[in-house]
Amino acid sequence: MSPIDNPSKRTLRYKVIKLMTWSESNIKRLSAELMWILCNSDPTEFILRTGFGNAVHMLGMRGFVNIPEGNSSGGVGVATTAEEMLQQ
Q1: Residue 70, helix vs strand vs coil
Q2: N or C: which end of the chain has fewer CB within 10 A?
């Protein structure tokens, strides 16, 4: 799920979303925190503005999404939809 209104490459939001996929974990975290604040700490708004894939880690840290842990076979359970993860 991409952002509801794809920002142009010249906007601050586009640049911050790109930083949310950066390889350096501190940059990822701080850019996600910035977007979280700009979205007024609203999980729905955060998902709509950043896309679910970019938002899921931050929502998991905030306790809005139950991120599955590894099971006994060593794999990770996978939810099928964004709504399913938000309802857990």
Answers
A1: strand
A2: C
State the average pLDDT over residues 72-84.
54
Cα-based angle 45, 56, 79 (whole degrees, multiple of 5): 115
Which residues, in sequence order, are bridge partners of residue 70? 76
- For the entire predicted model, the pTM comes to 0.67
pLDDT higher than 60, residue 77: no
For residue 65, which of 45, 49, 43 has the smallest C-alpha distance? 43
Could you tell me where the DSSP H helices lie in 1-88? Answer: 12-19, 25-38, 43-50, 52-62, 82-87
Which position has the token pair 């142009």? 8
Q: Which whole number is the average pLDDT over 17-24?
A: 90
